[in-house]
Amino acid sequence: MKKGKSYFFGIWMLTALLLFAMNSCGPAKAESAAAGLEKSSVHLSESAQQNAGDLPSGGAKTAPGNAPEPASETAVFNSAADAEQGEGSQEAYRYEEYPLERNHQSLHLDCVNAEGNETERNILLVHGVTYSSHEFDIDYQDYSLVRALTREGYAVWRLDIAGFGQSEPVEDGFLPDSDYAAEDIHAAVEKIVQVTGQDKIDVLGWSWGTVTTGRFAGKYPEHVKRLVLYAPILSGVGEAEVSEAFHHNTWEHAADDFQRKADGSFDYDCADPVLIEVFCSNCWHFDGEFSPNGGRRDILVPASESLIDLTKLKMPTLIICGDRDPYLNYDRIRDVLTQLPEGSELEMIPGGSHVVYIEKPYYHDFRERLLRFLSK
User: pTM of the entire structure?
Assistant: First the structure.
């Protein structure tokens, strides 16, 4: 059995055992099972790290043979995770990769669609500063935002910025900064326009992805129908020196965005314990031990420094976030509509954090607000 297959089989077995315990062993044993998962997480993530690919001494991960395949080669499957929730249990999802190159770098761009769905509704999702676009498609229960959007009739496109995820590694981790990433997004949107024949598409950026998509949309407004800035980093998050070109990823860092209790343990009322493990293990599998630091250097500046020129945005824009996100400048967010064009909206979800889109009490609310805006 190949390493990748054994890795995913291990996650599947762990998930199945935990769900069995939580559903059939009673509340006390379920809590014990969840606690056991938390204790075993670091061990599992070390196993995941071994499957993430070899890492060169220079800092960047090696390319795991990840140049995009021709679009004619596709993967189609029925999601057992969706079947568990009763959503789309008979529905197949079609994943297609599209060759894309910019600045002599191969970029990972794929499109996910419901099998048989011929749609004119396209949306591009853009990731944040450390981990790549796999975060939008968590294969557990109905937590995948990608598949939720496909069920609503969207073709969902995902881009990994240069050096991230399944895109080709970069030698210099400072190369893909915010402006560089904005041009990667432009290249991806031009490819989508070419493939679909549409002049404009919807674009969603998360966290640092709001900086990159915001700069892209300000420079190329002719290609953007509606813009979604989720957990927007509108200004610097605090001045700090970034001397290393690559960020050292750890399981603990990947888990930092999930809400905690006063004693430091995960708040399982907010996030499913299996979801946390799958999320963090995917970070190891797709992103490896190192991620480029150009974007991090851009945002670790004083809070007085603006990162997005909102006056350049000419399309309806949704600002959506939780009200407990430690990275956000809420004074600026509450004032944001005064700088955005007509048709723009602000949606703040009480209790939600930086990962509100996958938090148990809030993720359905997040989707409803998002879809309501996109459908206008």
Answer: 0.80
